[in-house]
Structure formats: structure tokens, C-alpha cells
Amino acid sequence: MLDTLRSIIQDVAEAGSFQESLDILVHDVRAALGTEVCSVYLLNREKDRFLFVANEGLNTDAVGKLELGLNQGLIALVAERAEPINLDNATVHPRFYLVPEIGEEAFHAFLGVPLIHQREVLGVLVVQQRERRKFDESEEAFLITLSAQLAAGFAHAEATGDVQKLLHGDVGPALERQDAMFRGVGGAPGISLGTAVVVHPAASLEAVSERMIDDVTLELQILDRAVESVRGDIERISEQFAQSLPPEELALFDVYLHMLDDNALAGDIRQRVRKGFWAQSALKQVIREHVRLFEEMEDPYLRERGADVKDLGLRVLGYLQDIRTKKTHFPDDAILVGDDVTPGMLANIPADKLKGIVSVNGSANSHVAILAQALDIPAVMGAVDLPIFNIDNQRLIVDGFFGEVFCNPSPGKVEHYRSLREEEREFAEELEALRDVPGITLDGARIGLWVNIGLPGDASRSLDRGAEGVGLFRTEVPFMTKDRFPSEEEQRAIYREHMVAFEPKPVTMRTLDIGGDKSLSYFPINEDNPSLGWRGIRVTLDHPEIFMVQARAMLKANEGLKGDLRIMLPMISSLVEVEEAKRLVQRAYNEVREEGIAVKQPLIGVMIEVPAAVYQSRQLAKMVDFLAVGSNDLTQYMLAVDRNNPRVASLYQEYHPAVLSALRDVAKAAQAEKIYFGICGTLAGTPLGAVLLMAMGYHVLSMNATNLPKVKWVIRNIRRTDARRMLARVLRMGTAAEVQHFMHQQLVEAGLGRVVPSHH
Ligand code: PEP
Ligand code: MG
Fold first, then answer.
1. Which residue has the higher pLDDT, 671 or 61?
2. Which amino acids are annotated catalytic?
3. How far is the CA of 642 from the centre of ligand 2 (A)?
């Protein structure tokens, strides 16, 4: 059964159009179960009707024409109950509704299974048979499994407009419709209007998705150019080695060239492109098949040739992606769009042209979102249905507050969003006046408003906005932009530059925090469960040479400065790690002093990012000078929700009562031990979160420079006694939604509604 299931899913995925995929589905299911009839009905939510979209075994003339109301017949009943209905004689069921034109009265046995994606019924898959019999359990289970697997594809087809095309006749793909809206989550606040620039990651056959194209001629041209470029490369290499290699080795290059001939690989790929596949997936299919053939061969020499085929495939893919993506000219209002936008991709667009970011994968807490916030660039993450293949050069509106992207916006929509953006800009201008005033509440409570930095340009942006210190320097950024670990001197120079810029303000340097979703190209970590794996302090304690170089660089960078150097340890989950790290820092300090450099003892702090550290925060507080909560990771680990996974993004709730009570407990532990404590997760930079954290007694809120002015405005316009009253209410609440709703209302009532936008 598993094989049948796989092959149906593969056939459906490889179909040339959505209608074809439906036709293949009903054909394959009918054959697999040996039934006489198989049909698909899809729900048209605008009209509240089910449309008969695919069939084998009934009168197929009705396909695309027949519609059923929301209460009509067994189809509606399956959808209503959102569970399968299995009947030996459907015609006697009270909800049976006879549609004479399709001729189903002759079929008695009926099994209907709902197609459900993210709790919503999208349609119904039905099999029917003349014979009066109940479908058996295994048949029912088979259809349920199949429907569950296919539902995501149906949802995607709906989002991209393929379903609407079936339901309304050919109104053109979604992207040609005005104001087609795709939903993700807000990654960085703000609104931008601009032109989509689609980027792809480095060539990897596995990462190529199956996509269809309309313009076969263009796609063939792209393929030809790529193949010709590879051919040129091979000829060049062959010439280079003509003198030094023996002829039998040189002959290998000819073999490569032959493989690229039209009667070999290239011909097969062209054929698939003619069927409507874009060149990259055509290439992937062909390479996959050939590699498999070679790998099955007896002869070890021939078996090895599979690797050559793959290598050739990758070379072609590299050019295919280059031809599509190599941009020499960026529009002035570029909106970077990609399946997985990475921090590295941001660097490829001139900063003054980058106006927005849309990533199909990832969530608000992916590092690219955090960088976008720091750069003040609106971002939408996890827009899973966005058809990025067709979106290059389209006009887009990115709403980073609500996580929405509009393609091909109408003049009305553009006008609306322009005026919202204008309001935002005016407010930002007003906030500039607060630059040099302290973060102090109406009743005199002082709170440190610090910044999280790491990117070039962050320091001046932060000082411009009145930062009073650095609560988190993400040292991994300088590591990510190199092709090897940076040396002690390279690190010292970068750290020094920042410390001098902030002098005499305190600067908190976090030791290298790689692993999870932060990887270094030159130090790959492959794990099944990266968030629970070798991350942060675990890596650097296992590599004391990396830790020591970094600690020495930090100490030296602070030489002769008045500002405090604070060294902060990420991902601490046991007291032993703190002991070991402190010992290493002390050793680094002694070594630097021995070199004759008069550096000061740094302060040492622990990040509270793991539930274990919350429970041990009192003991941790005794061992160090300060605590800093990393609420991004703490939320991820408290709630067991991957901070990067769009499928569970709605469960990633910083206002979850469990997270808030953990934050309160850390505050109490630090207060009991009388040490300094702060927070540097995204929550600190949100107006609602800042009010609650201030009420809990956090000394420092560290955030992106972008959010600082708004947070300062809120802090300066509220009384701590009022905030404490709100906190007391919040701590008795049961859900994140309740907390957010309540706090939202409170801020609006206190006249602070401007910082909690609600433009829907
Ligand atoms: C955090 O986890 O909250 C944090 C500040 O660190 P990062 O986002 O860099 O993991
Ligand atoms: Mg973290």
C-alpha cells in the first residue's frame, strides 16, 4: 500500500496543471482501490458551494459544471462532520441527494473522505461502487492517508489561484489578479511598497522544487545557455590539462561532453521542459534517474560514473540558477523574496535599495527576521503559499505588522498603505525628540534601554536612537561573514570599533552562539535536532581554543576604556558550564595580563534561555554578575515550538502565561540575590512586553535600535504602579490571546494606542 500511496502522490505532484493533477488523482485512486467511481469536490468559499472538479466513472460532462449547496447531499455531510462517511447503500441515506445528470443512482457503496488542511475542509474525495458493500477499514485508512498528504497541495493551489481558476473559469493565475494576498507572520514591523527580487540559495539538486512554467521556449533557451556554459567550462579545463594528462584520462572530458549531448542527458531534460517543467526540476528528475541507473550497475567503474552525472547536473544547475538570479541591476525599491532568505542574501543587495523582505520559510524569530528588525526593513516570514517562481519583478506591498503580502496591488490598496506608512514616518520623526532623554516612567522608575547589535552600521544607528548601552553583541555575525574562524586580531579590531563607539557605555559581548539556525559555512554541523543539539556554549566549551581566542579578543578590545565589558554566556543549561566558562575567561584574563596589557576584569553573565536555567536561576545568580533572559530561545524551549517552523508559528507565543511566569521567576531570583538582570529577546522591544517587563523589575530591556524609540515613548508615558496593576491581572490569565487583548486595550485606554497598530 505504501508504494501505491507514494506513486499516486508523485504522479499528482508531477502533473502539468492543477486540473491534470486532479484527473490523475481520480484515475489512480480508482485503479488502486478497484472502484467504479472516483470524484473530487472542492469547496468554493466565496459562493458557499461544492464544485464537482474531477471524476472517473460518472458522467464526466458534468465536471466543472455541477455545483452542490452547503447542505446538499452526502458531500456536504462529509464536509460538515469533517470525517469520513462509509455507506453500503448511499441511495437510502436520508441525506442522499440525487443529481440525475451525473448518473450516480446506480452506485450504492459510498466512501467520502474530507480534504482538510490546517483544520479547514477544502473539499471531499469520494469513491463509489455498484455493489452494496461497506468499504473495508484498510480502504478507508488508505483514503484518509492520501487525503491528509494531498491537502497541503490543495491549499497551496488555492492560495496560488489554481483552484479559483477551476471554480471561476480561467481568470488567470493568482498573481495576475489584483491584490492577491498571501499570509505569513510579521518578521519586522513596517510597511513597504516595492518590486520583488527573487533569490535562490547555492545550487543543490535536493532543494529544487517541482514547478511548472508557461513559456517553454524561454525555458529551453535558459537550459541551452546553461548547458553551453558548462560545455565551455569543460572544454577549457580539458585544454588546460592537455599537456599534463595522459590521453586516456583526457578522454574522460569527452565522455562528459557527450553526456551533455542532445541524445543523452540534455535531450532528456529538454523533453521534460517541453512537458511544462521548469528546467531546474526537469534537470533534477533526469539526473536522479540516471544516477539511480548507474548506482545499480554491477561494474564498480560504471557505478562510480553516477557521481560524474551528479557533478555535471550540479554544474548545469549552478548556471540555471545564475541565469535566473544573477542581478547586476537592482530596482531602487527591491523587496527580497526567497524560499529561505538568509542573512547572507541580505548582504548581496545594496543597503539603500533593500526595502522589504519576504521569506517563504522561517518565522518571526529566525535570525534573518531579527536582522531585518535591526535594519528597520519590513519583513514577512513564513509566507508558505507565495508562488515565488512567478513573482520576480512584480509589484508588492509588504505589511510587516500583520505578516501580509499583496501582489499586484490596486491603486486603492497602494494609496491606503502609503498613508499608513506616512503616519508611521511622522510618528518616528516625533520620536526623534526623545533621543537624549532617559527611559523613565511617569512615577520616576528608571529603566535601561539598551540595544542588540552585530551588523555593520548597528552602532551608529543605535547611538542615533539614544541607546544607553549594548545588551547583546551577537558575535556570530563577524564569524558568518568570513570563510574561516576570524583570528584573535580580526575579532579584537571589530569588537574594539564597537566598544569605542559606545564608550563609556557598557557593552555586553556574547560568546559565540552557533548551532540551531545559525551556521557557519566553514564549520557545518549536521544534526537531526539542531535546536536540541550542539549549540552555543556547548560548542565553545568543546572547543576551548575558539573560546579562548574570543575571550582574549574581547578583553583586549576593552583596553583603556571606561565602559564595562560584560561577557555573556549563551544556552547555559547547567552550573558546570558556567564554572568551566568562568575558568576559561579567567585564564584568558591572566594570559592577556601576562602579555603586559592592562585590561580590567570583565563582568560575567548568563543567558537564561532554557527552562532548566529558569529553575536554577537563583543558583546561577550566585555565580555571576548579571542574568539576561534570551526570551526568543526561552519561548522556543518552554513551549517546545521551533522558532523557525512556519507550521507552528501560531503556537510560538511570547505572551504565553507560562513564558511570562518564567520571566517573573527569573526576576524574583535575581532580586533575591541582588544582581543586575535584563532581557535581550524580541519581547523586550515590543510595547506590550516592555510594559510587563518593566513592571516585573527588569533593570535593562535590550532590543533592536529600531524598536527603541517607541518603547521609550511608552515607558515615559506610563506609571509603574499602573504597569504593576496590569501585570498582576496578566499573571492570572490563561492564554496568550487573553494577555495580548487585555494589554492592547489597556494601552489604548491609557492613550498609548499609537504604538499598537491595528489597521484592519
Ligand atoms: C534569544 O534567544 O532571545 C536571544 C537574544 O538570542 P538569539 O536570538 O541570538 O538566539
Ligand atoms: Mg538565543
1. 671
2. 367, 680
3. 12
